[in-house]
Amino acid sequence: MKTVKKINYFKNLLLRSNFNYYRMAMARPPYWIAANGKTCQVFAGNDLGSATCYGEVIVQDCYDIFKWSKDLNPSVIVDIGANVGMFSKLCSLLFPDADIYAYEPNPMALSWLEQNAKMTNIKVFPYAVTDRTGVVMLDTKSDSTNGQIGAEGNLPVNCISASEVASGRKIDLLKMDCEGSEWSIFQNTELLKRTQNFCMEYHLFDKQTIQELQELIERSGHRIVRISPQENWQSTVGILWSTQL
């Protein structure tokens, strides 16, 4: 099975980079993405976080977007925790007619996201998303892909409530990777209630359980489709998919 996974990974790397990379060590910014008969580049800093995002989102397809694109025809896509825009950029290729709302508060990633959004259907919003509108503290001392909101943060950033996301529109596809802020967002059921398909990287950082997470999601009328813990994170981080009943 490991051999099959390696072969699939190699094949995906070749095809999804338009044959620009034949091993992951070659992947350097700007990153090549090929999808839906189109090819583009994603600009990013030369750090481990952006390379990890490329490997997970594009090569591994951790959110199953390449698979979903065969059946989905979304009009509204939301990317909470967009970082440099790897997921948003992929969606702009797969779903060229969709409006894509990308939310990212970290200035280290935001400048790249704004550059990657040019000449696309991606709308950039320099905000964190929580359960209320205001100002929160963001920890920017680590890699931009791991910045968490909390009392120990070093940078004040603006945030909006989940009810304001996508201007209150119905959402066909919502992706979330916000380093634990999902627990605040889910306190209000409104966002998921107007979302049809949902995928996220979840975080069990404060002794939360996957059962608690399931209850929060299901009370919004969603059915859990699949949960995949990441083994190297000892099940505190993983990917979850759900759909509106």
From TrEMBL:
GO terms for molecular function: methyltransferase activity. Keywords: Methyltransferase, Transferase. Residues 79-220 form the Methyltransferase FkbM domain. This is FkbM family methyltransferase. Coiled coil: none annotated. One of its GO terms (biological process) is methylation. It comes from Aerosakkonema funiforme FACHB-1375. It holds the Pfam family Methyltransf_21. InterPro entries: FkbM_mtfrase, SAM-dependent_MTase, SAM-dependent_MTases_sf.
